[in-house]
Amino acid sequence: MTSLERGIVPISRPLRARVRIPGSKSLTNRALLLAALAPGTTTLVHALFSDDSCYFADALKKLGFRMNLDKDRSEITLTGEGGRIPAKMAELFIGNAGTAARFLTAFLTLGNGEYMVDGDERMRERPMHDLVEALTVLGAGLQTTNGNLPLKVLANGLRGGSTTVAGDISSQFLSALLMVAPCARNPVEIILSTEINSRPYVEMTLSVMHEFGVEIERQEYGRFQVRPCAYRSVSTYPIEPDASAASYFLAAPAVCGGFVRVENLSRKSVQGDVKFVDVLEHMGCHILKGNDFIKVSGSDSLRGIDVDMRDIPDTAQTLAAIAPFAISPTRIRGIASARLKETDRIHAACTELGRLGVKVEEHDDGLTIHPCREITPAAIQTYNDHRMAMAFSLIGLRVPGISIENPSCVTKTFPDFFTVLESLR
After folding, report:
1. Which is deepest, 63, 70, 94, 337, by most CB within 10 Å?
2. Which position among 314, 364, 385, 416 bears the catalytic label?
3. Cα 314 from Cα 332, distance rounded (Å)
4. Cα–Cα nearest to 138, from 109, 114, 112, 166
């Protein structure tokens, strides 16, 4: 095994563990953006410090916002400018952070100056075109050669008006438009041209906007209307534990038996991925949801299921990793958009399951995974995708000889993942 691999040592007894998960990436980045748009100072408590959130925070600092990042206390304090962007010029690099790319592109149109946004090679391949078109209709000045990064924002505020955006590519397009719309000079109408995927992320956006004092009018998921108004600062904004990251630990008892209790994650969470526990319940696991915890206990006989995961696609790899241990096949549907993430997650999951000797069928919108009595030891390729690394580590908790290549890719959203994984022992 090379230094670029990390071996996962199986756990030979049923789990009896309590874990704490870092703050939600999705909530951290939404709250950072709205705190910047509000006047006054906001402190994010239990904020996430990872590659994605740090790219976002660094971009805001380069744009002239006053910030204090206290990693030891997991707190970020930011002083907003009431819709104004202090810097007139900036070059922003956001790695492979999709939320940063989409949210910042929309945010920069509110400024008064010239800004460049770029990312790594994979981020340059990930779709931006529909968001660019929607912002252009609203009066934004954007220059890009192929509709993707890198792009230049020639900002002079956002005029407003009526625009159309697709909802089946990335819900981040709609979220980005919604968050900047109150700062346009005129009312904004956003019409969805397709069905929306990842609906809970849109609901999360609306929830955070509500906390910062802005309400919108909507007709289900077809039309959103936003009037010009001002955000208000929130002195302290608590960030929930990341439900997507919690899915790996909630799924661990399905592989190892016993139980895992995730602290401070509530059944009342605004994060859609908390519903992954419903998937585990349908497979036979036992679920206990409290006001400040969620506990999952394993099943003696894990059942395969047929499930549409279009609303919780970030947990599809978690399900794919535990599915070989079920007694019947598992069909994952509705995640075609996962092909446009950090990697083509459907193809990557199928490839790595095949490497392990698991029979798997790839579909346009998902995959079918068959039970596997004898999993072949292997080094799992991660494709520089944090979720591939974290999800497939679960297999190593039960099967000897599993290692994860490029384990450092987990720093994208969960730098301490392997430390927390070891705590299960």
Report:
1. 94
2. 314
3. 12
4. 109
Residue 94: which of 150, 134, 142, 144 has the closest Cα? 150
**Which residue in 373, 374, 404 sits closest to 386, CA to CA?**
404
pLDDT in tens, 66-113: 999 999 999 999 999 999 999 999 999 999 999 999 999 999 999 999
Tens of pLDDT, residue by residue over 324-380, are: 999 999 999 999 999 999 999 999 999 999 999 999 999 999 999 999 999 999 999
Residue 314 is a catalytic residue: yes
Q: What is the pTM of this model?
A: 0.94
- Give per-residue pLDDT as tens, 273-322: 999 999 999 999 999 999 999 999 999 899 999 999 999 999 999 999 99
Buried b (16+ CB within 10 A) or exposed e, 210-234: ebbebebeeeebeebebeeeebbbb
The CATH code belonging to domain 25-238 is 3.65.10.10
Pick the CATH number of 5-22+241-422 from 1.10.10.10, 3.65.10.10, 3.40.630.10, 2.60.120.620: 3.65.10.10
Q: Of how many residues is the chain composed? A: 425
Tell me whether domains 5-22+241-422 and 25-238 share a fold: yes
CA distance 401 to 372: 16
What the block records as the tokens of 246 is: 């919690």
In 3D space, the residue among 207, 220, 227 whose CA is nearest the CA of residue 271 turns out to be 207
- The DSSP bridge pattern shows strands 306-308 and 330-333 to be parallel
Owner of token pair 């899915």: 247
Long-range contacts of 281-289, Cβ-Cβ distance < 8 Å, separation of 24 or more:
282/307, 283/254, 283/322, 283/326, 285/253, 285/254
- The residue extents of the domains of the chain are 5-22+241-422, 25-238
Token duo for residue 18? 């309590």
Any residues with CB less than 8 A from the CB of 293 and at least 6 apart, and which? Answer: 261, 262, 263, 264, 265, 266
Q: What is the pLDDT of residue 79?
A: 97
The answer to whether the beta carbons of residues 59 and 100 sit under 8 Å apart is yes
Task: State which amino acid sits at residue 227.
Answer: R
CA–CA distance, 190 with 137 (Å, rounded to integer): 11
**104 — phi, psi (to 5°)?**
-70, -35
